[in-house]
Design goal:
Distance between the termini: 48 Å
Shape: globular
Radius of gyration: 15 Å
Number of helices: 9
Largest sheet: none
Oligomer: single chain
Number of domains: 1
């Protein structure tokens, strides 16, 4: 288990990685991506224009969650300093069972799922985030088309 200072240092390093130019573009794109099926999600992963963005963002947050689950970063501090991992998982979670079956990968996004669901209010926060994203999806889709 890491100390609070070690956790804070690692969280700041994760924050710095999020500021990298390609990662910033990928994160911006992720906020506009609202998949409605496992098939759409999988197809997007292979898209030559945006597939790398999807893979970059989801693998980044699952990796960060691995650090939390292994004790390198304090879970409470991680969840209090970022909500972006919740946004990413909220978009994926409704499709996750189908994705895991399709990919034959029951461990897909398991670390991110564990971080969120192990938080004291994780399931409630996830539901609130999904509700908020649902309310935001139509305007984002219109903006992307403009």
């Amino acid at each position: 288990m890491s100390t609070k200072a070690e956790s804070a240092d690692l969280i700041m390093k994760l924050y710095d990685l999020r500021r990298e130019s390609t990662m910033r573009k990928a994160r911006d794109w992720m906020f506009t991506f609202n998949p409605t099926s496992a098939e759409e999600y999988s197809k997007t992963m292979m898209d030559p224009e945006v597939g790398a963005y999807l893979r970059m963002v989801t693998s980044y947050w699952d990796m960060a969650a691995t650090f939390v689950n292994q004790g390198a970063i304090d879970a409470d501090m991680f969840n209090q300093t970022s909500g972006e991992h919740m946004v990413v998982f909220a978009k994926i979670q409704p499709l996750l069972a189908d994705l895991r079956t399709m990919w034959q990968a029951p461990e897909a996004m398991a670390n991110l799922e564990k971080v969120i669901m192990d938080a004291p209010d994780g399931a409630e926060r996830l539901k609130r985030m999904q509700d908020w994203l649902s309310s935001m999806a139509p305007p984002q889709a219109e903006e992307a088309a403009a």
